[in-house]
Specification:
The protein has 236 residues and is of the alpha/beta class. 30% of the residues lie in helices and 20% in strands. It contains six helices and twelve strands. The longest helix is centred in the middle third of the chain and has 19 residues, at 99-117. Pfam families: GlnR_1st (PF21695), Trans_reg_C (PF00486). InterPro entries: CheY-like_superfamily (IPR011006), GlnR_N (IPR049170), OmpR/PhoB-type_DNA-bd (IPR001867), Sig_transdc_resp-reg_C-effctor (IPR016032), WalR-like (IPR039420), WH-like_DNA-bd_sf (IPR036388).
Length: 236
């Protein structure tokens, strides 16, 4: 499991139990831009041990900008009095929690996430009228098969697995084409244009553009809304 700890301190300093578990841990500043310039983690933890107000604001902004992986806050016992549903987190962990409990909580939040994003069967992604079967590399929109190339399918699948989250072109190149791909970011624009054409006029807005940032997958409930402005960047 890849765990991103948003803190100025090392992950083991924020939550010592992480040092005793076999997960990949890395730290990044408590800044939304940290998620735009790194590979997608499996879990995000926000350090809320000292600056509780700042940590709360970070959690709220992360949710508002479309974070689609489990979000946890690491607090001290005294910080529990400030915790409310408005934080938008999936779970909390006390900084003194032992490794067995940390591991159990990680299993619980990632398990719930998998249940929420799984379709009728394993490997099926549903978003309104769009159905993506990752086992057969087939995609349909309103029952109509989409004639996609392999990379078009992989791009659509990746975006649909992270609805609402904005990815830069560089991120999409790394995630879909791989680190050994030497083409430019223009490749992403070309594939997005082809995907939109194949989705058709009714559904082309499923691939949303965030100006000066990149692209995101827009779910059916959000497609009726006007195009969003770039998400705010907050430095805490």
């Amino acid at each position: 499991m890849d765990i991103l700890v948003m803190s100025d301190d090392a992950p083991a300093a924020v939550l010592p139990a992480l040092d005793l578990l076999g997960h990949t841990t890395r730290s990044a500043p408590r800044d939304v831009r940290s998620l735009l310039h790194t590979t997608s983690p499996d879990v995000v933890m926000v350090d809320a041990r000292t600056d509780i107000a700042g940590a709360r604001a970070t959690c709220r902004v992360l949710r508002a900008t479309g974070l689609n992986v489990p979000l946890l806050a690491v607090l001290t016992e005294g910080g529990l009095v400030a915790l409310t549903a408005e934080w938008g987190i999936d779970d909390l962990i006390l900084a003194t929690t032992g490794p067995a409990e940390v591991e159990a909580r990680l299993r619980m939040v990632t398990g719930r996430q998998a249940e929420d994003t799984t379709g009728d069967k394993v490997g099926v992604i549903r978003a309104g009228d769009l159905v993506i079967d990752t086992a057969t590399y087939a995609a349909k929109i309103k029952g109509r098969p989409l004639d996609l190339t392999y990379k078009e399918f992989e791009l659509l699948r990746f975006l649909a697995q992270h609805p609402g989250r904005v990815f830069t072109r560089d991120q999409l190149l790394r995630e879909v084409w791989g680190y050994d791909y030497f083409g430019g970011t223009r490749t992403v624009d070309v594939h997005v244009r082809r995907l939109r054409a194949k989705l058709g006029l009714e559904f082309e807005t499923m691939i949303g553009t965030v100006r000066q940032v990149g692209y995101k997958f827009v779910g059916p409930s959000a497609r009726a809304l006007p195009e969003e402005a770039p998400a705010p960047v907050v430095r805490l």
